[in-house]
Amino acid sequence: ALNGFVLVVTSEGLIFYSSHTIQDYLGFHQVDVMHQSIFELIHTEDQEFRRNLHWALNPPHTPEGEPSAEGRKSLSSSAVSYKPDQLPPENSSFLERSFVCRFRCLLDNSSGFLALNLQGRLKFLHGQNKRSEDGSALPPQLALFAISTPLQPPSILQIRTKNMIFRTKHKLDFTPLACDAKGKIVLGYTEAELRVCGTGYQFVHAADMLYCAENHVRMMKTGESGLTVFRLLTKENRWKWVQANARLVYKNGKPEYIIVTQRPLIDEEGGEHLRKRSMHLPFTFATGEALLYKSAYPLPGFPDPFQSKGKASMSKKTFHSDRRRSQKDGVDPSSLLGAVMQQDKAVY
Asked: Where do the segments described as Disordered lie (predicted)?
């Protein structure tokens, strides 16, 4: 119900807890930020966060200039441990906090960072069972308990469309890893069903595959795909138009996974995008077929889509039998052609 998310950050700068609504504001999944350094998420110029983690706003001195990744890692060793009787009482106004900080944001309505207002207080974090260097148990230490809300309130349009937006997480080759609750409602699949089917391209309409692949390549080069409009196959064997933007998420300077933010479109909107796209794409397509490769002869194991225009066969082929067939015919099952061959012809 909050216009924001809950954040608990330890004195060392580790995210102890985040409510799952962090995904609606920053695009990061709750599981991906927990127990990570908060300094990986905030703007390097925003040193206000480090000061606010210290009870007297006076943290241990750090080298001048922007902290490097190594400097951030050494924070835990420079954190000071306090005995509770050295600190003001927990209800003291000294421990209240209210400040603004820029956070990394994966959503397409931001410039890469989102300014958040953090309001809360330092409280003791119990049950950590941490020990000092000599092996003695450390008393509970202060942690920042805060509510993070966007500095700029969202527009009515953003609030309306936010309720329809869903996000998916993928490996670098686009194999699905996770899908949020709204995505499961829109597409109908469970996460297990999404993961079992190999690359994510077999959920993409054949006429959209090369277009999606082109934007996938662009994202691997630049970090972002740009807006991509295409059709996804739902569990009910229907095509759902979505407008998507994919971004790479880096860890230690290397790309680790892809987050895709997707907004369902009505068929008329999707059709309009398709007409615009058809003016400059280098391959021909009709309503349901794509010539994925130029060839003057039928491809092995793949029926000529233009041969029969009658009612599509309703016979269902399982993923595994199609995969075996495509391997036998020398087609890589993770290629675009392999993805098309795994699809049931009836969906077209």
From this structure: 56-90, 308-335
Report domain extents, the chain: 5-56+93-153, 158-276
Across the range 261-286, mean pLDDT stands at: 76
The per-residue pLDDT for range 146-160, each reduced to its tens digit, is 999 998 876 665 555
Stated pTM of the model: 0.56
Q: How far apart are the first and last CA of the chain?
A: 41
CATH code of the region 5-56+93-153: 3.30.450.20
- CATH superfamily name and code, 158-276: PAS domain (3.30.450.20)
Which residue type sits at 95? L
* Average pLDDT of the residues in 41-66: 75
The 3-class SS string of 273-296 reads: HHHHHHCCCCCCECCCCECCCCCC
Give residues with Cβ within 8 angstroms of 42, minimum separation 6: 49, 101, 102, 103, 104
Dihedral sign computed on CA atoms, order 200, 22, 226, 42:
negative
| Tokens coding 72 | 């951030």
